[in-house]
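User: Can you predict the 3D structure of C2H2-type domain-containing protein? Sequence below.
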Amino acid sequence: MALCSFCGKTFSTKDQMESHTRIHTGENPFTCSVCSKTFIQKANMIRHMRTHTGEKPFSCSTCGRAFSNMVKHMRTHTGEKPYGCPVCQKKFAQTSHMVTHMKIHTGERPFSCSACGKRFTLKHNMAAHARTHTGEKPFVCSVCGEAFSRKRQLGRHMSAHTGESPFTCSVCGKTITQKQNLVTHMRTHTGEKPFCCPICGKTFSNKSNMSKHTRTHTGEKPFRCSLCAKTFSQTSHMATHMKMHTGERPFSCSVCEKRFALKRSMVAHERTHTGEKPFRCLICGKAFSQKRQLAPHMKTHTGEKPFCCSFCDKTFSQKSHMAIHTGEKPFRCSACDQSFIQKHSLTSHMRTHTGEKPFKKPFYCSLCGKRFSHKSNMVKHMRTHTREKSSLEMALTGQV
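Assistant: Sure. Here are the predicted structure tokens for C2H2-type domain-containing protein:
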């Protein structure tokens, strides 16, 4: 019996133990003569050589497909996972997968981005990240020509053309286009959340959601607009931003046909026609048409004032106060170049150019139906009704 001095695992022969030890030391003594890639075991190098020669000498008796490495493929049928992590005992079908997993425990990140210095556990992850700086999209759909920065994105896209969903959830029967997506989906049934934020400890069911969350701590914005160089924390945010440059507005209001870049913006706008206010305060019952309006309202109940002014030390429920000291007016009118501290002030000002009178409360008089561009004008108008009523009541009671 031979004993591994790193993890204590035992082996029947010394050769097996030495081969295993290379997992801990990182030694790769076998080198491919074609591409110089190195390997822990000679057998792994021989299998790798077939990627150059194209040789597939093994035929699967279950599905009939030919492979250069039959052992790995058979585990997709049997579900066998013979390699166990010595730290957390998680099982893997391939040694390479276990080696990659071990870096979660060691924290090893040997690959560094030459543009921003961010480090990665795997070389292919670093290469994919580098494309966020270069904008390169090397994976092209052979059907429609759309290009992608990652191979897996192309795989997901191709299923839209083929309609193929070969993986089926054993719990709910849902069909999935890719095996990794099935693994992620299964966690909705098991509740498993294996990815943990290294800063606050919050757990997630998939790695991408954890990465997005972690950026709320670090402030990292790795995705850069190729036109104006503005940076974003998520690709979806950058895609939304790009519509400002292209002018794309694919969503149209069913009532007035006004067009919007985002579906959620169109849905919020349509509530100005219907009067719908689905977001309701649980404390006082006041309702709002948009979710973002509810959050600042709740602070009127809690008294929360998380924003502290560095000039006068006063605290506020919203960030806009700082502009009083700095003089910053980030919201600029495209028609006359007048600037405003707050976005809603710009929106109100724009109506002086467009003449728009929004048909919604609080700019719609509920008594006579007259419409107003500004809330202050509507309030003044409402007083004409209250004065009329007071005069009538005085006449009926003989006071005039």
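The longest strand covers residues 2-3. Residues 388-397 have pLDDT under 50 and may be disordered.
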